[in-house]
Specification:
This protein is mostly helical. It has a single domain, classed as Helix Hairpins (Orthogonal Bundle), CATH 1.10.287. Helices cover 90% and strands 0% of the residues. The protein is built from four helices and no strands. The longest helix has 35 residues. The radius of gyration is 18 Å and the shape is flat. It starts with a helix and ends with a helix.
C-alpha cells in the first residue's frame, strides 16, 4: 500500500517536472505566482485575501496543467493538421486565458488599494 502511494507521488512529481521543463506558459505563471505570493506577504493582506489569492493561483495553474495535458493527448491522437484538434486546443487556451484575466482582476482588486495607500 505504502509503495503504491509512493509510486503515485513519484509519477505525479515526474509529470510536474516534465511540464515545468517543457511548457513555457507554466514557467511564466510560476514567475507571476512568486511575485503575487511575495506581494501577498509584503502588503498587509488579510487572511481572507490570502486565501482568495491562493485559490486563484492554484486554479490558474491547475487549468494550465489540464490545458497542457489535453494538448499532449491531441498530439498523440493525430500529428496531422486537423481542424477539430485546432479548435479543441484553442478552446483549452481560451479557458486558461479567461481564468488568467479573472486572476488579474482579483489581484488588482486586492492589491491596488494597498499600492495606492503607500
Amino acid at each position: 500500500m505504502i509503495k503504491k502511494v509512493h509510486n503515485s507521488f513519484i509519477a505525479a512529481f515526474n509529470g510536474f517536472r516534465e511540464t515545468i521543463i517543457f511548457e513555457r506558459n507554466l514557467k511564466i505563471m510560476f514567475v507571476v505566482t512568486v511575485l503575487v505570493i511575495a506581494a501577498m506577504f509584503y502588503f498587509p493582506t488579510s487572511r481572507l485575501e490570502k486565501i482568495i489569492l491562493l485559490i486563484t493561483i492554484f486554479s490558474v495553474l491547475i487549468l494550465e496543467l489540464i490545458n497542457s495535458t489535453v494538448e499532449k493527448i491531441m498530439n498523440v491522437i493525430t500529428l496531422e493538421r486537423d481542424e477539430r484538434v485546432r479548435v479543441i486546443k484553442d478552446m483549452m487556451a481560451a479557458i486558461v486565458l479567461l481564468a488568467s484575466f479573472g486572476a488579474a482582476l482579483i489581484g488588482a482588486l486586492i492589491f491596488l488599494p494597498y499600492i495606492f495607500s503607500y
